[in-house]
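re: ur question from yesterday

yeah so i grabbed the chain u mentioned. its 95 aa long if i counted rite. heres the sequnce exactly as i have it in my notes:
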Amino acid sequence: MAALNGKLTKNLVRTLGPGRHGDGSGLYLVVDPSGARRWIVRVTVKGQRNREGKPLCTDFGLGGADVVTLNEARDRALEYRRLAKQGINPRYNSR
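ran it thru and got these structure tokens back, copy pasting raw so excuse formatting
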């Protein structure tokens, strides 16, 4: 089901096996072999480059899936993407 629409559901968040599972727009649920689950978002910061001169893509942890709900993770990911689009690295933004 998730492969068809690119979106995770609450049930999939609880039941997916180990791996990195995309929700779309750079939001991922990472499930460790131990069963631990955490959210990450990958953003490209506008105007910033890495050492090789390529756009700066960075993964940011959003919290464990036992504490951060799917909707909260989506909201936080949206906030991080908005900052990155403005050229602000979310790592250095005070929240």
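noticed a couple things. The two ends are 35 Å apart (CA to CA). also Residues 70-85 form the longest helix (16 residues).
anyway ttyl
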